[in-house]
Write a structure and sequence with these properties.
Blueprint (H helix, E strand, L loop, with lengths): L39 H12 L5 E7 L11 E2 L6 H13 L4 E6 L30 E2 L13 E2 L2 H21 L3 E6 L4 H6 L14 H4 L1 H13 L6 E6 L14 H13 L4 E5 L13
Parallel strand pairs: 1-2, 1-3, 3-6, 4-5, 6-7, 7-8
Helix pairs in contact: 1-2, 2-3, 3-6
Length: 287
């Protein structure tokens, strides 16, 4: 594992070297799964990219719980049967001399929406295999009027989520992936806990910076302990909520810098930095 202060350094662990001259492929949701299972579409989509030789291919956001999917057509790894198609994708990547990573995720309050190629931002009801009455978030605040109002997670819900996350990590390891990425960005569950704009809890998971970052660290630590020490651990993060101009107290770049040090201590090797996606009032400022 890379030294814990070196999040910005190249990864050199054998046998996980990647072609640093080639770009890596970010996760690209296809909204084409069947009950969370990757399909022939995914194999064809990823296979064509893998053949072109990116430095590292990342499989799209893959839900650790059924209710953690963005849409009913999202991929998952919450049950064993979902491993088989992923194994085939990993085997093909390795046959081409390529490294492959999976991003594990939970959509939080942005779950149970209609696939974007059907309709943008609408709730997927039971008639569309959705679960609008079973969405979870740190607080019972909907993303907007088009999204379901989530249930505020209980302590039991949080514990179940953490257990499900590690179970999905173990399945990913059994599939043969070369790296794991924790999805902590774009307004999905872990990002929601970070931001005071979304997290209005009054227990140990809300309020202070320490409390709001607690769940991210409680997920990161056991993931690092579960995967091989030589395996790179990535974490996708939105560096800011872009809420300064809206006058809303949100997650900021300063918060990200502060959290980065804690993540390094927990064994995160790479911060995959993005921004926004957590609040409809965001305003992206040109720098």
């Amino acid at each position: 594992m890379a030294s814990h202060h070196a999040l910005t350094e190249e990864i050199h662990e054998e046998p996980h070297n990647v072609n640093k001259a080639a770009p890596g492929l970010s996760p690209l949701c296809q909204y084409s799964a069947e009950d969370g299972h990757h399909t022939a579409w995914h194999f064809t989509h990823l296979g064509g990219i893998i053949q072109r030789g990116p430095g590292l291919t990342c499989v799209e956001a893959t839900a650790v719980q059924a209710e953690g999917r963005i849409t009913p057509e999202d991929c998952g790894l919450w049950k064993d049967s979902q491993m088989e198609p992923l194994k085939k994708i990993v085997e093909f990547a390795h046959s081409q001399g390529q490294k492959i990573m999976i991003q594990l995720a939970h959509a939080g309050r942005k779950a149970s929406t209609v696939a974007p190629w059907l309709s943008a931002g609408e709730v997927a009801g039971p008639e569309l295999n959705g679960w609008p009455d079973n969405c979870y978030a740190p607080s019972a605040i909907a993303y907007n009027e088009q999204h379901a109002t989530p249930k505020a997670m209980t302590k039991s819900d949080i514990e179940e989520f953490k257990k499900a996350y590690i179970a999905s990590v173990n399945r990913a390891l059994a599939c043969g992936f070369d790296a794991i990425e924790i999805h902590n960005a774009h307004g999905y569950l872990l990002h929601e806990f970070l931001s005071p704009a979304v997290n209005q809890r009054t227990d140990e998971y809300g309020g202070s910076f320490e409390n709001r970052t607690r769940l991210t660290l409680e997920v990161t630590d056991p993931v690092r302990q579960t995967i091989p020490q030589s395996m790179p651990l990535f974490l996708r993060i939105s560096a800011t909520d872009w809420l300064e101009e809206a006058g809303i107290d949100g997650w900021t770049v300063k918060d990200t810098v502060k959290l980065a040090s804690l993540l390094a201590d927990k064994g995160v090797d790479v911060l995959d930095v993005s921004s926004g996606g957590n609040h409809p009032a965001q305003h992206i400022i040109e720098r």
